[in-house]
Amino acid sequence: MSDLEQLAIAFLKACRDHDIMAATAESCTGGMIAAALTDIAGSSSVVDRGFVTYSNEAKMEMLGVSGATLDAYGAVSRETAYEMAAGALSRSRAGIAMAVTGVAGPDGGSPEKPVGLVWFGLAIKDWPIITESHVFENNGRDFIRRETVRTALEMGLRELG
User: Fold this and answer.
1) How far is the C-alpha of 3 from the C-alpha of 15, rounded, in Å?
2) What's the half-sphere exposure (Cβ side, CA atoms, 13 Å) at 141?
3) What residues contact 158, with CB distance under 8 A and at least 6 apart?
4) From CA 48, how far away is CA 71, in angstroms rounded?
5) Integer Cα distance of 147 and 157 in angstroms
6) Residue 120: half-sphere exposure toward Cβ, Cα within 13 Å
């Protein structure tokens, strides 16, 4: 069993223990977090939905991310991750929502937002939204996306205790 599979199983168990459902809002991972969760048999009792919002339009339409936020800070920002997590929570039946937005590469990086930068948002019903960023080593697109999935699941587990 892979370490991602073990993390997904642990996250699903934590959600069951807290009697909450989960939602994901994903940009750079394109649904990989939801896939990691739904690869586990029985996950339908915990996973409510996943939003794949690769474009700015999708972030605005599906999650309610503000156009002003995207204009001012860009898609890869603390502010956007925050609004993605808030939108996924409010537009689902979930009690926890994980959001990710980043630069998976190989192109698209800049000095301010290098390849490997990912912003994470985590919203839990009735708790303040948490955001954090990581700059993963640029070992290729697949590596950055896998590490993003791992980090999101670890963050969810950490906050669920």
Assistant:
1) 18
2) 9
3) none
4) 30
5) 15
6) 22
Report the distance separating Cα 31 and Cα 92, nearest Å. Answer: 16
pLDDT at residue 1, rounded to an integer: 87
Residue 50 CA to residue 1 CA, distance in Å, equals: 24
pTM of the full structure: 0.98
For the 3-160 domain, the top CATH level (class) is alpha beta
- The amino acid that residue 151 corresponds to is T
Residue 21 corresponds to which amino acid?
Answer: M
Give the Cβ contact number of residue 121 at 10 Å. 28
Tokens of 112: 């301010």
What H or E segment, with its residue span, contains residue 36? helix 32-38
Amino acid occupying residue 43: S
Asked whether residue 145 carries a pLDDT value surpassing 90, the answer given is yes
